[in-house]
Amino acid sequence: MANEQLKGHLALAGAYLIFGLNIVTCKDFTNSGLVPPMALFSLRAFGASLLFWLVSAFMPREKVEKSDAWRIAVASIVGLFIPQVTFLFALTMSTAIDTAIVGTMLPIFTMFFAAVAVKEPISFKKAFGVGVAFAGVVFLILNTFHAAGNVEHTTPLGMALLIINSISFGAYYGVFRPLISKYSVVTFMKWMFLVSLIVSLPFSFRELLQVNLLAIPGKLMGEMLFLIIFATFVAYFLIPFGQKRLRPTVSTMYSYLQPIIATIVAVITGLDIITWQKIVAIVLVIFGVFLVNRSRAAGQ
Q1: Is the dihedral angle over the CA atoms 12, 14, 16, 22 positive or is it negative?
Q2: What is the pLDDT of residue 111?
């Protein structure tokens, strides 16, 4: 059991390390304007779907029960389509560090959805932690929207999309663990990405026809391949692998890695700047989420 939990921790640490790099890489790629957000999602879904189906061809065949088909479809929309699309659109309206900070709210939303799904009570300590983290996000919002002197800053719509992203992914983490645990990672994810791809095509088909992949410079093509192979295929293999072995709220604790990795890389590459307001926001959010997860672990 301990060995399985260790595997889960390593898998989720790897996934959120990739997500931290993904925020900065994706921000740089979307700034180029070469591929619209919805088209980029379809390309990521196509690439990941293709890779998962190829891998499944070399594995024992696993049949999905008919009663689970609609659940997987809903999980695909809640856990892939909505989070990734809102993330990609939000990146065009927000800074890399702000994106990472708001992403640390994920464990709190997961806690609420898990409470509804498994009837877990919310204690005073949890509520206090939520309040502290919420205060951190509000502090970030107030200072971000008034930062008119910055060349690039987060807009209200960008912030709203980031919050929707965390709520949707939190619902996926908190509600669908039993379904995720029922099937192998490859079987589950190959259907998840196929459904997401099908859902996205009506919105992205016209944009995809206008994308000229041959015109994308080498550096940006490398970033796009990173987004498809590592930030989509590898990361979304590691997440359900870890989810099978750890509780939902413990799984999402690894979102703490995102602001750390994203901040370091964004500052080094010049895509964002660190300010005392952002440091305060990071501390408040992480401390608040720590209280939530601490009370969860202590059963309080």
Answers
A1: negative
A2: 75
